[in-house]
Amino acid sequence: MDKVGIVIKQRYQKLLDDVVPFMVPRWLFVCGVLFYFTYRIMALQGWYISCYALAIFHLNLFIAFLSPKIDPSFEMSESLDDEDGPALPTNNNEEFRPFIRRLPEFKFWEQTVISTLIAVFSTFFDCFNVPVFWPILVMYFFILFFLTMKRQIKHMIKFRYLPFTHGKTKYKDSNKEVVPEPVIPADVGPIDPDTLIPM
Predict the structure, then answer these.
(1) Residue 166 pLDDT
(2) 59-62, long-range: CB within 8 Å, 24+ apart, which pairs?
(3) Would you say residue 193 has pLDDT above 80?
(4) In 3D, which of 163, 68, 54, 47 has the Cα closest to residue 112?
């Protein structure tokens, strides 16, 4: 039985390794599964609790995706003895440090797919169809979303970080070979441009 579990884990890991480079198709797949889930919820007119739980879980994943791995406010509280606080780059002359997420993009995608597939699966069972007044759930979700995002944006402004890094600044063709201009003495006459010998 353990061998079967190991083989299943290896095949699942191989599948994940194969889809890593295809970011756009992966997220299009997520959109397709979410569209199917939304269609089932609207067609069946039920399972609003499953939908609400999925939305809250996705919001939690999104906040973790936007948050830095090492929280600057936590570093600040640890370094109360230091006057400087956390050492983040504040101008162009300092070292470039990429934004490291608490939840990497691939894990965000993987957990989104798994949770959405579980939510779709739950719509096939009546025990998860708890009768609720769904407009209250929608209103509560949007209030929670706006308050959470407001707090996250304030945190980003306070500690001056952006969750989207485009890499180091690239300068003009650094691979292009620089050919120095020839130094021409002032008292020499015209010079042949091919040989750089005075004519």
Answers:
(1) 64
(2) 59/141, 59/144, 59/145, 59/148, 61/103, 61/108, 61/111, 61/112, 61/115, 62/108
(3) no
(4) 54
